[in-house]
TrEMBL record:
One of its GO terms (biological process) is fatty acid beta-oxidation. It holds the Pfam family CPT_N. It is found in: Cell projection, Axon; Cell projection, Dendrite; Endoplasmic reticulum membrane. This is Palmitoyl thioesterase CPT1C. One of its GO terms (cellular component) is endoplasmic reticulum membrane. Residues 712-748 are annotated as: Disordered. PROSITE patterns: ACYLTRANSF_C_1, ACYLTRANSF_C_2. It catalyses: S-hexadecanoyl-L-cysteinyl-[protein] + H2O = L-cysteinyl-[protein] + hexadecanoate + H(+). It is an enzyme of class 3 (hydrolase).
Amino acid sequence: MAEAHQAVGFRPSLTSDGAEVELSAPVLQEIYLSGLRSWKRHLSRFWNDFLTGVFPASPLSWLFLFSAIQLAWFLQLDPSLGLMEKIKELLPDWGGQHHRLRGVLAAALFASCLWGALIFTLHVALRLLLSYHGWLLEPHGAMSSPTKTWLALVRIFSGRKTMLFSYQRSLPRQPVPSVQDTVRKYLESVRPILSDEDFDWTSALAQEFLRLQASLLQWYLQLKSWWASNYVSDWWEEFVYLRSRRSLMVNSNYYMMDFLYVTPTPVQAARAGNAVHALLLYRHRLNRQEILPTLLMGMRPLCSAQYEKIFNTTRIPGVQKDHIRHLRDSRHVAVFHRGRFFRVGTHSQSGLLSPRALEQQFQRILDDPSPACPQEEHLAALTAAPRDVWAQVRSSLKIQAKDALEAVEGAAFFVSLDSEPAGLTREDPAASLDAYARALLAGRGHDRWFDKSFNLIVFSNGKLGLSVEHSWADCPISGHMWEFTLATECFQLGYSADGHCKGHPEPLLPQPQRLHWDLPEKDRGEFCLTYESTMTRLFLEGRTETVRSCTREACNFVRAMEDKEKTEPQRRALFRLAVEKHQALLKAAMSGQGVDRHLFALYIVSQFLHLRSPFLDQVHSEQWQLATSQIPVQQIHLFDVHNYPDYVSSGGGFGPADDHGYGVSYIFMGDDTITFHISSKKSSTKTDSHRLGQHIEDALLDVASLFQEGQRPKPRCRGLQEEDSGHRGGSLPCHRRGSGAPTKSTNF
């Protein structure tokens, strides 16, 4: 998603304004601190799990083991082989009447030690099993005997009741690839876009890097991989996200849309009430670890670490570096409406407020006629300012409006009740989706709190959307939450016949609290390097890796489609080669054998050592003119797209990674629906999102015709064709959409 934009902002130095960051700490100290942060996270997670009774295992399992030992002891059997007697000798002698108590304590201590040893053995065995990646390399739909055996063992060692973080202590660490392999793959990825002369020059730089600097930098990465949880993820978060001084708006945030064709209720407050209630139900399940861990292809668990910061999280600006603040709990949401800020409690003494009670609170805000203060109305625009500017202003704001600022930053999440409608209209689908996406990505620039982990946006006609800050987690995490929210608020909570939330209001609830800010006046047609994001959550604390999808095989296929002399069998063969190459790159990246994160980490070490590498400088000066990302549908069981085809989400999108490039996001819903989101900057004279959308549509139809006996399939746009522009639509919902304020974009 938006990570491509941040990765580009990183080049070639570590700040967006071109100034070189002085990394004064020795690299060994930085590696030590990375490991220390990892161990602190492990201890914090261990303590939380211990308090909730889920680690190292259920207390019932300990009680069962203790009871079995006591029973054996009663039957004059010693399962400890004399160890309990030795433990009794080490315990204090409290007199003869307490002899039995010493025996019980000895049995409890022995049971605890045995219990811990068994669990540790299970974790080690499961980690060894999860280090196997042979299943990933097998053809789709086929499963070899070793993989079947491996899968059976994984299920045995995983236990009967898996919880969200059950696998965290058993996931293998992400391996550091061979530097020779990484450089070889990098050269292979740039070969299609470079001339022979430029490629020879780049190859020479690469060989010089391998000869002079690679082995030393690789040694430090190996050291970090042994000491820290992940050799790259914490540096990726810090240097690509938290050290970036750019505005978060468009550059770092991304958005997610509502159901495309359906709005369950036109009542704005009711939709907000159900959505907030559903989100807090998700948080409740998250806190109790009742969300099942994601299994790739139904077999391999993925890392769940990123789920920890979905709620109660804010990115706090700093002059040189931001930091992420996460609270254990928050019992209110911050609400913005017509330039005013409110604090709305989400719980009463009896627990979570009902959807109808939340609707009542939101309706009170909508009905409040009080005007916004002049400085308050555009205050949130500061969160869209460059980070160093916002950090300086926030330091004074924290003194002058401490309580109001804490109410916003300490909220579970931010809710924006917009005064305008949004969503797809059949009269003008292109313009309506443009406006919808633009409102989600940027709004008006002053009606979103971009620092929050996510903003829930509720439009006046009941349409929903999310604006998500990227540093705390990647898109599949927020996508998982959003799928649950849409399915729960629509299908489980539902609405009454008049469009309101079910249930009864609670008139005795206190009014939403208006926040007051004591504010002073403020100042008001060629191949290109392609970034495709994939996840590395097969490994502990893994995040993402880049798939360099502009391969020679893909280029050969594209040229064949343009070459009238090529036959359809030749094109099909080249298409299959391109797909096979792409799948190989994808699987390599997912299994920790990608290119860019390894090169990124090598570059960070070189900066710590003040060791200049022309090759690494060249790598990080590349222009990603095409950034792509898929939003995976992870909980398809929540949606019946066959019986209810209108209840499909159109996914979300992000801004372009390059000033003269495109950001392309896509989502598959069911077997026959693809939605694309294409963004580009209005300031560029080289890009046009609507034209690119038409080109992609034509390309999809041409590819489909290769496998349908030469018959070019007709697009099915569900009545959304645009007669004025001649846009035929794509192979399914061919809707165009918009992006942020400084961008122009399309969706089809």
